[in-house]
Amino acid sequence: MASPFITLTTDFGVSDGYIGAMKGVLLGINPEATIVDFSHDVPPQDIAYASFVLGTTYSYFCADTIHVAIVDPGVGTTRRPLLVVAPVGRFVVPDNGLITYVMPGSIHLAPQDGLSQASGIAVRKTALPEDWTAYVLDEPQYWRRSVSATFHGRDMFAPVAAHLSLGVSPTDMGTPVLDVMVFDTTSPTLYGETLYGEVIFVDRFGNLITNMTRSQLSGDVSEVEIGGVTVKGLNRSYAEEGGILALFGSHGYLEIAERNGNAAQSLGVKVGATVLVRS
Fold it and tell me: Fewer beta carbons within 10 Å, N or C terminal of the chain?
């Protein structure tokens, strides 16, 4: 049987040797491993960005794929290293909210008490879905012999993923847990005929991706307002006209873009900006 794919998502970049070291460990344990790079250009320490990348990409791979995602400002602290096993894949991640956009429904949570602050992002515990399991990676036989307090990606996550790809059971990897950390996300809110949402992601083209999906919009969209600019109606593609435009992008979310430009820069907005949609 062919070895399952191992995907990598990190904020390590490619100018240093961190990714090379991780791949060396993976291939040293499983020389037949097929490694796929999702992204290594996640902004440093931006857990939410990495979660969105992982959450909008994993579904294109087989359910036995092993997804290693590391944006880990809390490396070396008490944050838990996890293996999360779901019907849609296996995820080797720090327990800092990175799994959020993989969870069913993207875990839309209203802000409330009970948050903790971990590595600059507000997170809370949430119970796993019934058909999911998770394990704290506390079995050292599946790590490298020497573990750096600053590079768990190389010394813990990579070897765990490699052993998984060779058929080691997730139950052998560590202690079962019933919850994981997720960060707060919010659903759009309807007031009268106006739907209030927000920007949740800005891609490298400056496209502003919101938390609004087509199913949340009733009827045709007459206008979209963001950053003091009102866009009339929706486009089908980025190339239909010039200037600022709105459309449903490939992720399935409403986007605000600029043809041959950078909407985020032109509008001076970023993640968290309010978006108003009127039918």
Answer: N
Q: What distance in Å separates the CA atoms of residue 25 and residue 7, rounded to the nearest whole number?
A: 14
From residue 37, give the alpha-carbon distance in Å to each of 11, 20, 30, 31, 205. Answer: 12, 12, 17, 17, 20
Longest dimension (CA), the chain: 61
pLDDT for 15 equals: 96
Q: What is the pTM of this model?
A: 0.91
| Distance, CA of 253 to CA of 255 (rounded, Å) | 6
Cβ neighbours of residue 216 closer than 8 Å, sequence gap 6 or more: 187, 188, 195
Taking CA atoms, 158 is separated from 23, 56, 81, 272, in Å, by 8, 22, 12, 33
Alpha-carbon distance of 163 to 160, in angstroms, equals: 5
User: In sequence order, what are the beta bridge partners of 207?
Assistant: none
pLDDT in tens, 81-140: 999 999 999 999 999 999 999 998 654 443 333 444 444 568 889 999 999 999 999 999
Top CATH class, 5-183? alpha beta
In CATH terms, 189-278 corresponds, of 3.30.565.10, 2.40.30.90, 3.40.50.720, 2.30.38.10, to: 2.40.30.90
